[in-house]
Amino acid sequence: MAENLTVAKVHNFLKDDSVPIKTELYDNREKGLFIIKLANGGSWRYRFVFNGRRYRHTLGSADMKPEKARELAQQWRTKIKNEGINPLAENPSQDGRANSEN
Questions:
Q1: What is the CATH number for 76?
Q2: What is the pTM of this model?
Q3: What residues have CB less than 8 Å from 41, skipping those under 6 apart?
Q4: How many domains does the chain have?
């Protein structure tokens, strides 16, 4: 499901006990951006494809405002599409938060 994510919508999504853990809520303003509900709250993640391979990367905790998450996702998209750079190659995750889906 994609929605125009706001601070209030994210808060309600994360606090709603009827929403199962690991449920993803996608932003309809920034392709590939979503928030995932986790047992300890949630996190903003970005899905992208680079050289035919799909990736997910954690951008930050659910405390981050949607506007900031969109800004980070746009920066990643620019590097991928305009510069042909895989941002994970520039900043490999030191804590294992980035992963390939293939």
A1: 3.30.160.390
A2: 0.83
A3: 14, 61, 62, 63
A4: 1
